[in-house]
Amino acid sequence: MNDVEILSTITLTRINTFHLTSLLELYRKLGSATAILEHRNNIRDVVPDASDRLVGSLKNIDDAWQRAEAELRYDRSHGIEPLVMGDPRYPQRLKECDDAPLLLYYKGSTDLNAKRIICIVGTRKCTVYGQDMIRRFVADLRRLCPDVLIVSGLAYGVDIHAHRNALQQGLDTVGVLAHGLDYLYPQSHRADAEAMVRQGGLLTEFPVNTPADKKNFVRRNRIVAGMSDACILVESAAKGGGLITCDIARSYDRDVFAFPGRVGDEMSEGCNNIIRDNVAGLISSATDFVSAMGWQTDEQLQQARQQGIEREMFPDLTDEERTVVEELRKDNDQQINMLTVRTDIAIGRLTAVLFSLEMKGVVKTLAGGAYHLIN
Which among 99, 195, 259, 352 counts the fewest CB atoms within 10 Å? Predict the structure, then answer.
């Protein structure tokens, strides 16, 4: 990406006239930050209803441009990469969102467009139960999906435990910050952050000299949610930042999951509530999650194709599995209660048969619990 586009983008983000969505709308209309600045003296030719304030701010960009030049000099000397929206390294999942930032500052080594990306969020008062859930989940996820990237906010509690367990398991992990990359909050996580730069990265939309103000944490949550395929809530009180991230993820049509907790436990109340209200899917393990996402099915199919197995023949199925497959051939996407009637397999046994078929990449579960035969 050329320096003119980078400097133009930094300059635009330094002009506080813009609302996030209106800035993105203008960017998409003209195709680049450079084009916006090229039209700064006749912006109403492009946006007829542009406000007087917007027109005035675009005509006086000298100070913002100088600060952009200073920012770029700092970034280049400190290993920070400014990622503008047109850069292929910019998180493409996030790019789809209506309030995506035009610019991100990145310091790290991982691919922000990895095949599989999840965010793990929750309370800053993570209990022993929550820590155990994270430890088991990340360890099992490493076995099932060794290429997954784990994103969180580097905060106390759930965030830092997610990052640390990812590092321990050899998974890349990215921390999305609520301030510039010239310092770190909290300072106690500096060693973790340094390890993450080597095995993941640090990401923010904020330039240097931006403090960790309260409002910035809410803004950074949309990046955590937007760059991920799915959001997992480990523990949360009835109100909290993790729930905000889940709401944002839902608004972006991302999958949301939560670990249930014991009734009456303060730090499980938020999880239990969003499961009850059908905002999040209930999971108790990495296997639950991978199955719900259909990720293991994809791996099974890919492996089968590589080995030259003809999918239509299903050569390694048991008699019961073949019975289920034949029934789904006749009428796909059936609930388990209907399948048990039509196959004459007891429901307890049928559950095990269906699980085996999922592991073999033959069927997958759909929203609502129906089973789908993969063609």
Answer: 352
